Amino acid sequence: MSEMLVQQNTAHPPLQNGHDYTLFGWRVHSDGQFPELAPWDGDPGHSPDIRICHGDAAPLEGAVHRFGPLLDFTDSTLRFVVPEIATYRLDGQRGEPSTITIAPAVGMTIDSPEVRLFFFGTVLAALCYRRGLIPLHASAINIDGRALLLSGPSGLGKSTLAATFYQHGYPLLSDDLCALDVSIPGSPTILPCLAYLKLWQDAARHLAIPTGPLEPVREGQNKFKVPVPSAARQRMALRQVVLLRRVAQPDDGGLFPLRGSTALRQYDLFHRPRLGIAMGYQADMLLALAAVAQHVPFAELRRQDDLSALPDLVRLLLAQEP
After folding, report:
1. Are the C-beta atoms of residues 41 and 27 closer than 8 Å to each other?
2. Do the beta carbons of residue 298 and residue 243 sit within 8 Å?
3. Tell me, what's the pLDDT at 5?
4. How would DSSP label each residue in 16-56?
5. Is the predicted pLDDT of residue 133 greater than 90, yes or no?
6. How many CA atoms lie within 13 A of 123 on its CB side?
7. What is the mean pLDDT of residues 90-108?
């Protein structure tokens, strides 16, 4: 696991007035540095699909819909306020370039870890929905050229299990967040996002990963970003979707197939599903879920909070013939 632990490169060669990255195949041009993303290596003449700007994230105008106390949106814009962190504004419709304006709070910058954290949460989910992708709350592992998805609510061990697969020689595609593309009929594919793992201190210690040189996910939090330089970046067909569930007793554990309508009810697979529904993308989400369930097996992995059992879970999942 030692090759995981490399110093993050936060000094990508800047273009004029910014930095150039790749995200889900999009060219991202940013005023600030996003070390979580890989540098853009595509056509240098390709116009940016996404622009991330430091500026005034002005309130929305027109027919505004409210989603909770902190987020408003219209048909072409979205504004998200995170107190003491930043205000984010997303402008752009499907098929058009998108602009994300970030107004950091006092004491924050566009480069602050907390500002980047919320960008890779609600803001990126909204961006995916608006640009025709389905954001998934899942870690993805490359198993012989196909993606194994590990999904479920936060805190159930997706990243820890993904790290264990990595230790067993299986490349990481993305941790915690990836995107689903169902634009090609019969060929749902996964687009990786973040080439690092987010691990709590106890999980990192169990996996023999020193956290001293690592950046915390949030200031003062015992959860750390573990860079994985060998993570694959290409889109990949799906192998299996596994939903994690915690159980109290060992006898309740195991891997159980999910079929038919049960598979189609797994909304935990989506990233920010209630936001997607509120924004009018429920039909797209259901169609995407049906497209995956038609071609890829779903299963529920019921497990205890037992770090020593992680290698057994890897062997159990590898033994499945999708």
Report:
1. no
2. yes
3. 37
4. TTBEEEEETTEEEEESS--TTSEEP-S-TTSPPSEEEEES-
5. yes
6. 23
7. 93
